[in-house]
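Worked example

This section walks through a single chain of length 111. The input is the sequence exactly as stored; nothing has been trimmed or padded.
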Amino acid sequence: CEHTDSDDCDFFFWVALDTDGKVLPLEIEDERNCPKPFNYIALTIGIIFALFFIGLVALLIYKAITYLKDEYEYKQFMKAQATQQWSKESNPFYKNPTQVFINPQYEGGSR
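Given that input, the structure is written out below as tokens.
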């Protein structure tokens, strides 16, 4: 027979009856089969490392995607620069921020 004790350990024992129906002394196995305690520390560390590596992989994928997108946009920009119609020295959209105004009331001279 098999029995589980209060420590959740299994042990085996044998019961024998003699010809008169009397119970003979029990024979109990010396070894108990106890379940190994669950290692919560290993589980916690495993989950932390798994989350870390999943995050790291996600960041690397994001970095690769943004790098490829930026490289594509840079090539498009360089292509647009090569096909521009105005010279590099003058830009038709640029206005000089400084202007000269002449004051007719000012007579010039020293102070």
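What to look for: The helical segments are 40-82.
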